[in-house]
Specification:
3-stranded mixed β-sheet, alpha+beta, 4-stranded antiparallel β-sheet, 4 domains, MutS, DNA mismatch repair protein, domain I, single chain, about 40% helix, Alpha-Beta Plaits, 13 helices, DNA polymerase, domain 1
Length: about 350
């Protein structure tokens, strides 16, 4: 999706359309999403709100509504399943689709992507961009090229040429720190990366070296996994005003415990390890876990354990975020079926 949270806000509130908009807290915190109008001024997600306001003085801040974003995400996902059962969600606003065998029998992957994007716009009301290629890595890279409201096909015959010309910071999996390190090594494009040996890349980047060696050659064998095994379930809350009173913290732990049980009951999931997450006003973070031999069962179990973990915190400072997550779950591994991609790429561009 294009600027998903911001786009939903502009869809729901017409007075925000065409405005420089940021989803997040204005007085503190970070930008969760920025409209394209705001991005023209250099506002980006994960940017501190204070800096965003400096870059764009007329920036409008709105509080996030995650329940609404999840609702819209589910509507979009239903559209995906009209075309293929092989859907791997990455987040509320992004997913991989393997359309090797699609339910509509649409021969061209390009036409299929256009139809899905058209339906999202007509039925949901926001725009989406797509990347189409022979593997997940290339599709992900392609999805960012013609944003917003566009798509890019990287045809099998164009893969190597495309990757060699691609700036290294555009490679999915290469973050700012890694890109800066590569620049110091005179690696600025895929072509620069490609001349490095596997041994060289492994010595410099460790296990990631093999990943970089393969993807610059168009090799990425990760399958689309429609049933990703859930390893944890988490709930958390960022507070618009820092919590300084222990009674307030306990009240929030009770609310989080109830929300966690609600989520778990819908999925029939249980777990044995509970983790408390605390983020302080200075953005420092503390986590502590407790594992028991039997599964947690009730709100009371979670709440009492969370209170005990709270007592282990290293110091007393104002709290900006609290979270509870459950892991060591009762979910079982499911084997995925490997499918060879044989997608026709008619009319690519």
């Amino acid at each position: 999706m294009d600027a998903f949270y911001a786009s939903v806000e502009q869809m729901d509130f017409p007075e925000l359309r065409g405005k420089a908009l940021a989803v997040g807290g204005e007085t503190r915190g970070v930008v969760a999403a920025a409209s394209y109008e705001a991005r023209k001024f250099g506002v980006r997600s994960a940017m501190p709100s204070s800096i965003a306001k400096q870059k764009c003085p007329h920036l409008i801040f709105v509080k996030p509504r995650f329940a609404r974003y999840k609702e819209i995400s589910q509507q979009i996902r239903k559209i995906f399943y009209d075309y293929t059962d092989l859907v791997e969600p990455l987040s509320l606003d992004e997913a991989y689709l393997d359309v090797t065998e699609n339910k509509k029998n649409i021969a061209s992957a390009n036409d299929l992507a256009r139809e899905i994007r058209k339906r999202i716009y007509e039925e949901v009301g926001i725009t989406a961009s797509a990347g189409i290629s022979i593997n997940k890595f290339l599709a992900k890279v392609g999805s960012d090229i013609n944003k917003p409201n566009g798509q890019k096909t990287i045809h099998p015959t164009q893969v190597l040429e495309f990757l060699e010309a691609l700036p290294i910071e555009k490679f999915y999996g290469v973050g700012k720190v890694t890109a800066a390190k590569m620049h110091t090594l005179k690696i600025f494009t895929g072509a620069d990366l490609k001349i490095r040996s596997l041994e060289d890349l492994t010595n410099i980047f460790g296990k990631s070296g093999l990943f970089y060696y393969n993807v610059v050659r168009g090799i990425h064998t990760s399958e689309v996994k429609p049933n990703r095994i859930q390893k944890s379930v988490a709930v958390e809350e960022t507070f618009w005003e820092n919590l300084g009173d222990e009674a307030e913290v306990f009240e929030q732990l009770q609310i989080l415990s109830e929300e966690l049980v609600n989520r778990l009951s819908k999925k029939e999931i249980k777990g044995k390890t509970l983790t408390l997450k605390i983020k302080y006003e200075d953005f420092s973070q503390f986590t502590r876990s407790n594992t028991q031999e039997i599964y947690f069962e009730s709100v009371g179990d979670y709440y009492l354990t969370a209170k005990n973990l709270w007592q282990l915190r290293p110091y007393d400072k104002a709290i900006r975020l609290l979270g509870l997550s459950l892991s060591n779950l009762n979910t079982n591994e499911k084997k995925q079926v490997s499918v060879q991609l044989k997608i026709p790429f008619e009319g690519f561009y």
